[in-house]
Specification:
Number of helices: 2
Keywords: Signal
Number of domains: 1
Shape: globular
Length: 88
């Protein structure tokens, strides 16, 4: 089987376009990305999974009723917010 530069480029574009969705699939169909969360179009409590959050092990975040604000749990019972992408 002979591969051309075009076929390799198409393959790489396909793999790269699927990569952002991999994080959310691991946490179920209802998990969304940080970019989606910032639209304010999702119900409070929707899980947010995105590498841009830079969460530590055990930490998790969900949407809130306030656009641009995520409510997060540190995994030990403590909570914190992420406001417009910045940890508070």
């Amino acid at each position: 089987m002979k591969f051309t530069l075009t076929s390799i480029a198409i393959l790489l574009v396909g793999v790269a376009s699927a990569a952002p969705a991999l994080d959310t699939r691991a946490f179920g169909d209802n998990a969304i990305s940080l970019q989606q969360a910032n639209t304010g179009k999702f119900e409070p409590g929707t899980p947010v999974v995105d590498g841009a959050l830079k969460l530590k092990d055990g930490e998790s975040c969900t949407t809130t009723s306030t656009k641009g604000v995520l409510g997060c749990d540190d995994g030990t019972g403590g909570t914190f917010n992420i406001v417009d992408g910045k940890r508070q």
